[in-house]
Write a structure and sequence with these properties.
The chain has three helices and no strands. It has 123 residues and is mainly alpha-helical. It starts with 5 loop residues before the first helix and ends in a 16-residue tail after the last helix.
């Protein structure tokens, strides 16, 4: 069997470390890029949602100011329900609130199944 010389082992070790470092840098850059894109998209969503909510509130204030309290109440109720549904939908999509992620994280802690185990006396 061929053995590696100490210089070859050191060279192989350095090569493996360089490869791991490049791989980790790529993962880090990808994660940072994804985080920046998600942050920019979230800012746009908040601005757009805020402008729609503001328009809905103004749509309810105008009839209230002109004496149409019932119409203003109906519009304000509809806007409040829509905002609550949208915010509730966003909250339910968070990973910390999903039970699937909790179950999948527990799977990693369970030992692997190697089939039926032999007991003493079994042949």
């Amino acid at each position: 069997m061929d053995k590696l010389s100490p210089d070859q082992i050191l060279e192989l070790h350095d090569s493996i470390l360089k490869h791991m470092d490049r791989s980790e840098n790529r993962r880090f850059e990808f994660a940072m890029d994804r985080a920046n894109k998600n942050g920019a998209s979230q800012k746009l969503n908040v601005r757009f949602g805020g402008s729609i909510a503001l328009a809905g509130i103004l749509a309810a204030v105008y009839p209230a100011a002109t004496g149409n309290d019932i119409i203003a109440g109906v519009i304000a109720t509809a806007v409040t329900i829509i905002i609550a549904v949208v915010i509730g939908g966003k909250m339910s999509n968070r990973p910390s609130l999903q039970t699937d992620n909790l179950e999948s994280s527990n799977d990693a802690e369970q030992p692997a199944d190697f089939g039926p185990q032999r007991r003493d006396g079994d042949f």
